[in-house]
Amino acid sequence: MQSKTCEHKESNSRELINKIALEKEKIVDYVYLLSKIEILEMNKEIQEIRNTEDLRLDELQNDNENLDEFIDRVQEEIDLVNGKSSSHEKISNLKRLRAQCINHIEVISLYLIELDYIKDILEDILKHGNQNLVYENTFNLNQFYEDVLKFLTQDMDMLYDKIKDIIEVLPFRMTRDKYYDIVRKSIFNGLKHSSRIEVDIVLKRYRTTFNGTLGKDYGCSFDRFFRNTQNFKRDNYPEKSIDYISKRYQSIKEFIGEINLIYGIIRQCGMILNRIILIEELKVDNETFKVKDYVNLQKGLMNLYESKKFSNNKDFFQKYEKSIDNIKEDFVQSNYGFTELLQRYYDENDEDDEILQIIMEVQKILAYFNDYYIEEEVLMIYDDREEVDEYYLEENIENFIDFMDRNMKSMTNIQRKARMKKILSLLDKPFEGPEDFYKYLKSSIEFSTDNIKKTIIMNDIAKIMNRYEKSA
Fold it and tell me: What is the residue extent of each domain of the chain?
């Protein structure tokens, strides 16, 4: 009897493994076709921006190459997508190009970080220093506090989104020791179940966000970005007139808009390279790729890539609009199906090498396909996720706090507060609950003795509350 039960369990286990393997093949098929489709969509957007905006990409030099040349090299790789075979050498070359893309993105983001701080400071000066603006105090302070606490405690799933938004409009009022304690606890609690790689990535982001000027290649690449950023940073804005600050504020907004447009183009180049790498990896394993449910769509893609007439792909998207919508939906459903089957398997069986291999293959594919940040040369897959030990995490958090402390010594008060507030707004659950944050909010408002400034802050918070109420 026991033997029959074991045989039945093994039979069910094998059946589940076969179903999981089949679902994996569907995911691979859909990713292959969707990668080709999304390359066309993103490339079209890039070329439209290049043709309509005067971005002077040829003047932006990094690592002995300007951005125009880099985008042209990505375009050359798109032209070669339709090749019938691939090689590990070709994939290595693509990964080197992707690494250059990551470097471009990292350097551009450093200038954006510093410019955003200046923009936020100018916004604050304009809001609180323009004596020509009249703010009518229509708030009953006690009623306002009651409304805020009610707002925070409603829909607790959105609590920390609300806290983040309110932090950004509150003046920063906190002792350095209290601040470091919040940073320490929040980062530890947020990362204690993460891998070492994830810890390194997140803390690197925090360091760069706190001070972009210490990032690699800041000031060494994209000279126009550097010169203009330093020009905006040199001004002693608190001593300038409101009219002067207003003009500088408009200038910096326009400059940030230009850089964001370029940043978006390079990031899309990275996502295109991710998809080309995926396609080439899949071709190494299977030179005759055929997706049986979408034969006509596959033929249409093949013909378009062979023609290399990517600027005239409007007819293609109109002709296959329904098929493209269907394959996107099928891809989502296959992901759900794959996850559900895995859950069923682990509910009934122990870990299995065959299943682990399937999971790693899917993880590797989806790691490239879902990589929108384009910030790491080596992407994490399943076996990279060994949980970090507490000592390593605590040591790296203290290193980050020391990093902030050293940097703040050379900053003006206005710069220091702006950067501390930015990190506070980015932390995962910096306050223990609505009441804890409510105390901080109340003390921040009441610290100010200027009734006009108080009214401005309350008005900003009321706008946030109204926005959430309308979207509910």
Answer: 2-108+263-384
